[in-house]
Amino acid sequence: MEKLLPKIKESRFSSSLGCLHCGNTAVKRNGKYRSRQRYLCKDCGKTFNDMTNMPFTDSRYPENWIKYIKMMINGVTLPKISDSLKIHISTAFYWRHKILNALGSHGFNQLSVIHYLLRISKNL
What we know:
This is IS1 family transposase. This protein is α+β, with helices and mostly antiparallel strands.
């Protein structure tokens, strides 16, 4: 996950660093939490970091998300994913829906979700 963090930051803030809540670009550094840089928006006063509003924010197993996505793309069943990653089957089910909902909220339909996941899996 730590190798992925710079790529996520680069992708999310490629045009400029802006508040993830209101979009304002007037932000300042605001300490660190769990080795992640925090930012404070000067406009709305809310804080955020590189992982704010991501499906795996506050996950107990952030290192498993990439493995999970790869298995999901390859059509591995939830029980097999659960056994392989040593997570409860209800967690595997919950993660699948978090991923699908996150992609759906960005306008992807089911077919385009599959194409998108296949495309990003080649970069993982």
